[in-house]
């Protein structure tokens, strides 16, 4: 994978290298030519990233001073404090990217006191394997070249979509939380497999391949889940009996309600 021209010679850092921040740095470590830095309150969390070429920085002011692009990967309630600590080291050309749920662009602008650019991004955990979906909030105040650079950056880790602020919480409820829905579904199918006599390992492997293959079918141009489902359901067959049970027990409605519950909470 080639380094986009917009990121050439850019120094990219992350404060908070847990699951999501670590996934972003780890994914970027696979791209040649990037200069990567990390800070984490528990330094041991950085060891796997350092093995990939990420440079550990011992404090927040140090990483803020060193980096052109600074990802804030801490929990939402910590973002204000982290940015207050980083503030004296931020430069006008620095781009601060928050991946914290619920922290708005207005919050970020207030936290950096207009000292630098800010961007709001919502990722999901498949970024760990280079298949993330990143919602990036549109911001007319951000220079076009900076916004293009951010799209290039997250395009290295999966797919991106630009969203207005009013759709950001909906994206979080559907896509940010979405892996949990899929894994919940997969775990239930695996339990059914164990009930029918497969070992747990066999059931998990079968279900994982089932979901991978089905997703590839759904991604084909012109595909639609409803049509693909119909193609599996032969008249008076085994599959339609199972699908009828799902419909009688309102599984579709429960899935919709689960996403709306997340949306109401966001």
CATH superfamily caption of the largest domain: NAD(P)-binding Rossmann-like Domain
| Beginning-to-end CA distance, first to last residue | 35 Å
- The CATH C-level name of the largest domain is Alpha Beta
Structural class: alpha/beta
Low-confidence segments, given as residue ranges, are: none
User: What proportion of the residues is helical, as a percent range?
Assistant: 40-55%
How would you write the strand order of the largest sheet? 3-2-1-4-5-6-7-8
Second rung of CATH, namely the architecture of the largest domain: 3-Layer(aba) Sandwich
Binned strand content: 5-15%
CATH topology of the largest domain: Rossmann fold
Number of domains: 2
The major beta sheet can be summarized as: 8 strands, mixed
The 3D shape can be described as elongated
Helix and strand element order: EHEHEHEHEHEEHEHHHHHH
Arithmetic mean pLDDT: 95
Put simply, the count of helices is: 12
Report on the architecture of this protein.
Its EC number is 1.5.1.2. This protein has 266 residues and is an alpha/beta fold. The protein has two domains: 160 residues, Rossmann fold, CATH 3.40.50; 89 residues, ProC C-terminal domain-like (ProC C-terminal domain-like fold). It is built from twelve helices and eight strands. It has an eight-stranded mixed beta sheet with strand order 3-2-1-4-5-6-7-8, sandwiched between helices. It is elongated, with a radius of gyration of 21 Å. 29% of the residues are buried.
């Amino acid at each position: 994978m080639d380094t986009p021209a917009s990121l050439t010679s850019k120094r990219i850092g992350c404060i908070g290298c847990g699951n999501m921040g670590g996934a972003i740095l780890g994914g970027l470590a696979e791209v040649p030519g990037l200069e990567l830095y990390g800070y984490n309150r528990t330094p041991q969390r950085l060891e796997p990233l350092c093995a990939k070429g990420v440079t550990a920085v011992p404090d927040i002011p140090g990483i803020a001073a060193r980096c052109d692009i600074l990802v804030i990967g801490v929990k939402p309630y910590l973002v204000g404090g982290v940015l207050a600590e980083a503030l004296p080291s931020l430069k006008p050309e620095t781009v601060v990217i928050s991946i914290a749920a619920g922290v708005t662009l207005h919050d970020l602008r207030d936290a950096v006191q207009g000292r630098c650019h800010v961007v709001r991004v919502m990722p999901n955990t498949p970024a760990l394997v280079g298949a993330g979906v990143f919602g990036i909030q549109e911001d007319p105040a951000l220079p076009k070249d900076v916004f293009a650079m951010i799209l290039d950056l997250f395009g290295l880790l999966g797919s991106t979509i630009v969203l207005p602020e009013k759709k950001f919480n909906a994206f979080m409820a559907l896509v940010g939380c979405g892996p949990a829905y899929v894994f919940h579904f997969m775990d239930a199918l695996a339990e059914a497999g164990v009930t029918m006599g497969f070992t747990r390992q066999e059931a998990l492997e079968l279900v994982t391949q089932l979901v991978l293959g089905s997703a590839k079918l759904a991604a084909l141009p012109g595909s639609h889940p409803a049509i693909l489902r119909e193609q599996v359901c032969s008249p008076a067959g085994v599959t339609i009996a199972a699908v009828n049970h799902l419909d009688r027990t309102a599984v579709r409605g429960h899935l919709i309600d689960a996403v709306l519950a997340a949306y109401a909470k966001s």
